[in-house]
Each structure stands twice: as structure tokens, then as C-alpha cells.
Design a protein that fits this description.
Blueprint (H helix, E strand, L loop, with lengths): L2 E6 L4 H4 L13 H14 L6 E5 L2 H11 L6 E4 L30 H18 L4 E6 L1 H12 L14 E5 L1
Parallel strand pairs: 1-4, 2-3, 2-4
Antiparallel strand pairs: 1-5
Helix pairs in contact: 2-3, 4-5
Length: 168
């Protein structure tokens, strides 16, 4: 059985400003760096076989901090990218309430398909291993929805640098 430790990246400048980041790179702020360091310190003595991250900077940076005591290279995959928010990307989140969603937002079906592909990728690539994977709020929610066979609305939101365990 493969154990997946699913992590949300540390807080970013845009998280703090309530800006919809989507698939932009993002930059950890001081708090986000501290959050990643806290996960690193808490997980320093736990066995990990691999560390995987979304290929977006905010996740790679979080994973790189966590990886230090494990001496593991961070593998990246676009399967773990955040949902593409299309025309909402870069907008102030409170202003989006009640707005009609633009046609260029990644569909829920595509998001859940990527989540399912990610689970299969981890299971196939790291059979029987302990894998820590750093993703984003919405893709991590989709991964858990697929895993638990629940609607995304029933999966509790992950906080920055929160870790959840899935046995694949």
C-alpha cells in the first residue's frame, strides 16, 4: 500500500491579499516559509521515499523546504497544478461573489479527472512507498473527493501547509 501525505503549499503573497492565483507561479510570503519550515521540522524524522510537488513555484518552494532533512529531490507534475481559474485569475476574491463564471475556467470534470490521474500516477510510480505531495487548495480537495468518493463540497478545505494522509 502506498501512503500519500497530501500537503497544501505555504501561504503566498496573493493568499494573504485574497487574490485568485489559479495556475500562476505564486510566491511564498514570510508566513508561508515559516509554515513550510514547521512541516519540515515535524516531518524531519519520519520516513519518506519521495517528495512530489505541483510544477508551480509556490508548491515547489514548499516541497523543497520540507525535503531538506530527507535529502530527496523534489519531483514535479502538472497533474498537481491548481485549478485554472481562467478570467478570474488575478482577481480579488471577494469581488467575485455573484459574478457569472467565465467560460475559460477549468471544468469540474477535468479537475476531477486530473485528480484521479494523480492518484493513479502516485500508486503506479511509487507502489508501497511513503510519498509526500505538495499541491494546492482546490486540486487537493479534488484528490480527496475522488479518494473518498464524495462531492468536493463535502471535503473540508485544507489550510496552508496542512497535511492529510491517504492510503492508496
Amino acid at each position: 500500500m502506498t501512503t500519500l501525505y497530501l500537503v497544501r503549499h505555504g501561504e503566498t503573497v496573493d493568499n494573504a491579499r485574497q487574490i485568485m492565483q489559479g495556475q500562476t507561479q505564486g510566491e511564498l510570503n514570510e508566513n508561508g516559509i515559516r509554515q513550510a519550515e514547521q512541516v519540515r521540522d515535524e516531518w524531519a524524522d519520519r520516513p519518506l521515499d519521495a517528495i512530489v510537488a505541483s510544477d508551480l513555484k509556490r508548491s515547489v518552494d514548499t516541497a523543497s523546504i520540507i525535503a531538506v532533512p530527507h535529502h530527496l529531490k523534489v519531483e514535479t507534475t502538472p497533474l498537481l497544478r491548481e485549478r485554472d481559474w481562467g478570467g478570474f485569475t488575478g482577481r480579488y476574491i471577494p469581488d467575485l461573489k455573484g459574478e457569472v463564471w467565465p467560460d475559460d475556467i477549468e471544468t469540474l470534470e477535468n479537475l476531477l479527472s486530473r485528480a484521479s490521474e494523480f492518484i493513479a500516477y502516485i500508486r503506479d510510480t511509487y507502489p508501497g512507498k511513503k510519498v509526500l505531495a505538495v499541491g494546492h487548495g482546490i486540486i487537493n480537495k479534488a484528490i480527496q473527493a475522488v479518494y473518498y468518493k464524495k462531492p468536493m463540497s463535502e471535503v473540508q478545505r485544507m489550510m496552508n501547509a496542512e497535511v492529510r494522509v491517504l492510503e492508496l
